[in-house]
Write a structure and sequence with these properties.
With 114 residues, this protein is mostly helical. It has a two-stranded antiparallel sheet with strand order 1-2. The radius of gyration is 16 Å and the shape is globular. It starts with 9 loop residues before the first helix and ends with a strand.
Length: 114
Amino acid sequence: TRLYCYSLDQSRVVRPLATEKNYHIFYQMMAGLNPEERKQLGLDGYTVMELRYLNRGDVRSDEAQEIERFNTWKANLVVLGIPFMDVVKVMAAILLLGNVEFVEGNGLEVDMIG
């Protein structure tokens, strides 16, 4: 088994180019999570179009292919001994943070919506 390490461009998560997708694993995750997993991760009720980090740029998708690739990725985590839920919790948190919006309050406080 080979394990490759990549240096991922953080700005691509928050600002993908207009003609590109965000990291494909995010779309695969959204397609491949079952309803219980979505609920545990706080993603129930969200679609790709409702997640700010995913609804920009190229949003075309083949859902069946995304699910297949997600399931392959999930199986590979098992082979490597990496806990699936530990990884998707971080990924879900990243996506949900993209929907947080900070607005000025009436004093020194800041309100958060999203």
